[in-house]
Design brief:
The chain is built from 11 helices and 11 strands. By secondary structure, the chain is an alpha/beta fold.
Length: 300
């Protein structure tokens, strides 16, 4: 049997007739004439080469073939209706969407604790998969190919098929530990030139690019993939590191680190949210973007 030969409307009528066990009642529920319902069942019988209902003088009785088809057909029709409804009216309380978000460790810290708490309470069936962001030029490629749904990262190169919006701001500072010689609370770019730096993440790129303009600047000795180990190393060595202030405020309660402020505007951090233009009007996608913006706005 080729499914392309079956009219889905006939399957819907079959389910209603089966539930009602009456052509008359089914016609009333479907807002059709009795003859239209009878003709629909006849067409479905002919298409499937089955006899779905047995008529007597007062009622109709489903055949064994109808009994075996009913549950699966009704379930499939309900799934189709639910999927189509979600495309128009997204309900986070019942949706089982899976969203893939690429972000740095900083983006994860700024967003995920509150995001997960919100989902557990208001959207328990929605799943979120967090991945590390790809290289600069690959963010656009992974969005367009559907590998990720959203990217929460610093500035990236994008095409006209990708949309971006700034959703989070912070300040880059320098941190030192108790083993490092004392540093002033406020530093100039020249004061950073001779320091032994550790770097992690992408958020500090504008500041590093400015430092590289000085011929006496020494590139960072270590480049790490996570900020968590950076903080621990600084607190137990004579190395210093660049770090976002929001993260510093959290970890300075647990580690012996000191904050040193850097000159504006090179100390500014900006995180952008990236997504495909074709997802802009998707109700589920729009709901998640609005939720992310709300969480990050409240953390400013």
């Amino acid at each position: 049997m080729n499914i392309r030969n079956i009219d889905l409307n006939l399957l819907h009528i079959f389910v209603v007739v089966y539930d009602c066990k009456s052509i008359t009642l089914a016609a009333q529920q479907l807002h059709l004439t009795q003859s239209a319902v009878s003709n629909a069942i006849t067409r479905l019988n002919n298409t499937l080469e089955l006899k779905l209902f047995i008529k007597d003088s007062r009622s109709i009785t489903p055949s064994r073939q109808a009994d075996s088809l009913y549950d699966n057909i009704k379930c499939c029709l309900q799934k189709i209706e639910s999927s189509l409804a979600q495309q128009i009216h997204f309900d986070p309380a019942t949706s089982d969407y899976t969203f893939r978000i690429a972000t740095t460790h900083y983006g994860e810290l700024a967003l995920f604790p509150k995001l997960i708490a919100h989902l557990q309470q208001h959207a328990p069936n929605i799943k979120v998969v967090r991945t590390l962001p790809p290289k600069n030029d690959d963010v656009d490629k992974e969005l367009q190919s559907g590998i990720i749904d959203l990217a929460l990262v610093a500035d990236r190169k994008i095409t006209t098929e990708t949309h971006s919006e700034t959703v989070c701001g912070d300040t880059m500072v320098l941190i030192s530990g108790p083993q490092h010689p004392p540093l002033p609370d406020k530093l100039t770019l020249e004061a950073i030139i001779g320091l032994d730096l550790i770097c992690s993440g992408y958020e500090h790129e504008p500041l590093l690019n400015a430092l590289k303009q000085n011929p006496n600047f020494h590139p960072p000795r270590y480049t790490l993939t996570t900020m968590w180990s950076t903080f621990y190393i600084v607190s137990t060595s004579k190395l210093v590191a660049l770090a976002p202030l929001r993260l510093v405020h959290i970890l300075e309660n647990y580690l012996p680190i000191k904050t040193h402020y850097l000159p504006a505007p090179l100390n500014a951090i900006k995180l952008n949210l990236y997504w495909r233009h074709v997802d802009t009007t998707d109700p589920g996608h729009a709901w998640l973007r609005a939720l992310i913006k709300s969480i990050l706005d409240s953390a400013e």
